[in-house]
Amino acid sequence: QWIFLNGEFVTKDNAKISVYDHGFLYGDGVFEGIRVYSGNIFRMKEHMDRLYRSAKSIMLNIPYIQEEFTDLVVKTVERNRHESAYIRIVVSRGVGDLGLDPNNCRGANVVIIVEPLAIFPKHLYETGLEIVTVATRRNRPDVLSPKVKSLNYLNNILVKIEARLANVNEALMLNDQGYVAEGSADNVFIIKDGVFYTPPGYIGALEGITRNAVIDIAREQGYEVKEEPFTRHDVYTADEVFLTGTAAEVIAVVKVDGRPIGNGVPGSYTKHLLEKFRERVVAEGVK
Ligand code: PLP
């Protein structure tokens, strides 16, 4: 396995960063996750655009222009020769002293890792997930925008911890007003009477690239998709629920807070969408 580290390809054992890196000390940095399907990189431009937007928002200078960096990602994928894989890009503020001030840092650390990844066991894609809603709230968009995919993932981690404590694999967090926001690292959709609903960006969620792809695919299939706020009640009473994310892909949810969704098995709209999604990711990706 070859890891891109600041301009060089190194082995896993040699991929090391200083303890003075501000990504490590303070979570100061940004990241991206991208999928490779059958050798094709899915929606690469959207992911790279988001990476640069995240960096700009926190005044982090990525030491490559976007086209250059995109080439480096492609090169790292080629070097690792996986048919299907997950790409993790990390750009941290870099090495500085123990003060918070980013001006003390001597330039970003840039890492690209490419490896196979499955965050949920395979059988759950057939049976569907059981999830819960948790006490952890999505941070408000005016505090630290959830649109920034930053290295500060503590509330997402707390969501995962709460899910594990409830003996399930994933959970949904609400925003500060009680509207459903998203999962720990995935967006949520509900389907009611054949209409797809997903929370709008202003609710406070990451604008998922898988989410946007699913919206495109659903509309192409003739389904109506609405970006509207909804509550836990709407989730409990939905006909179908599913999650989307680069790591999670598209996965049905069959139980929420102990309430079976629909018939308690993955629904027909979700299954249809998953099938179309799988066709598209291969067809659409960039070699
Ligand atoms: N929400 C959060 C908090 C995430 O970290 C992710 C993962 O990337 C998503 C949603 C899903 O976004 P995407 O489909 O772009 O991977």
UniProtKB/TrEMBL annotation:
Classification via SUPFAM superfamilies: D-aminoacid aminotransferase-like PLP-dependent enzymes
EC number: 2.6.1.42
Cofactor field: pyridoxal 5'-phosphate
Keyword Transport attributed: no
Keywords from the named record: Amino-acid biosynthesis, Aminotransferase, Branched-chain amino acid biosynthesis, Pyridoxal phosphate, Transferase
UniProt cross-references to CDD domains, sorted A to Z: D-AAT_like
Pathway given in the UniProt record: Amino-acid biosynthesis; L-leucine biosynthesis; L-leucine from 3-methyl-2-oxobutanoate: step 4/4; Amino-acid biosynthesis; L-isoleucine biosynthesis; L-isoleucine from 2-oxobutanoate: step 4/4; Amino-acid biosynthesis; L-valine biosynthesis; L-valine from pyruvate: step 4/4
Designated name of the protein: Branched-chain-amino-acid aminotransferase
Organism: Cytobacillus oceanisediminis
